[in-house]
Amino acid sequence: MSKKYSVFKIMNCLQQRVTQSKTLLVPNVYGGLYVGRFTFNPPATKREMRTFTNQFNIQLPDEYIKFLNCCNGAILFDIGEGIRTEIYGIDMLTKFMTTIYDIRPQFLPIASNPKANFFIDTTQQENYLFWNEGSPEYMALEMGFAEWLGHLITANGSDFWNWNPMLQCREIYNTVNLMCMKVRIIEKES
Fold first, then answer.
1. Which of 98, 185, 188, 190 has its CA 20 to 30 A from that of 84?
2. d(Cα 170, Cα 120) in Å, to the nearest integer?
3. Can you say how many angstroms the Cα of residue 146 is from the centroid of all Cα atoms in its chain?
4. CA 171 → CA 5, 37, 65, 174, distances in Å?
5. pLDDT range class, residue 3, cuts 50, 70, 90
6. Distance between CA atoms of 31 and 96, rounded to whole angstroms?
7. What is the pTM assigned to this prediction?
8. Are 145 and 7 in contact (CB under 8 A)?
């Protein structure tokens, strides 16, 4: 769990920003603005969480439990026509556990948007978030829930997990480095 990201602080700041109208003006990639609507369910009770974890014999990550303590599910950056990010509460988790648990028992769906589904790998303690685009292939996000939530808010609901500058830079660096190494090797052989 990252000390840098706090689910409570992230959710508290976001809820304060949208207190009055439950909306924010959010920029899109073209520089235009759209109205993003937000819905926060009341916090889950300890009894609801205990019932869920006992019923399915599952341990949720602390960061996700903290989210459920803030709100038992939320809809973020809803611009209409199904374009939004939904973070699931106990009711949706229960529904998923009773319908798809047998397919991939270690992956618990916790959120979705039109481009991706997000899962907790219940067998891991760190870097436990995965995503897919509706396929049976799961890609590691190499982060926990708090970091994912922080990036999602910072990116105004955009699909930051597809922004890959570090990997692109690494590829460029490796290519340049290999080219330099080839040049050095050739120079030494001459």
1. 98
2. 27
3. 8
4. 28, 38, 37, 5
5. low
6. 37
7. 0.81
8. yes
CA neighbor of 68 nearest in space, from 38, 126, 36, 111: 111
Quote the Cα angle for 157-149-134, to 5°. 65
With beta carbons less than 8 A apart as the criterion, state whether 151 and 160 touch. yes
Q: How far is CA 93 from CA 41, 82, 86, 172, in A?
A: 14, 20, 12, 41
Of 142, 99, 89, 134, the C-alpha closest to 114 is: 134
- How far is it, in rounded angstroms, from Cα 100 to Cα 6? 30
Burial 32-44 (b: 16+ CB within 10 A, else e): eebebbbebbeeb
**Residue 4's pLDDT is what?**
84
Contacts of 157 (CB under 8 A, 6+ apart): 26, 36, 76, 77, 84, 85, 113
Per the CB < 8 A criterion, the answer to whether 159 and 113 are in contact is yes
pLDDT at 190: 40
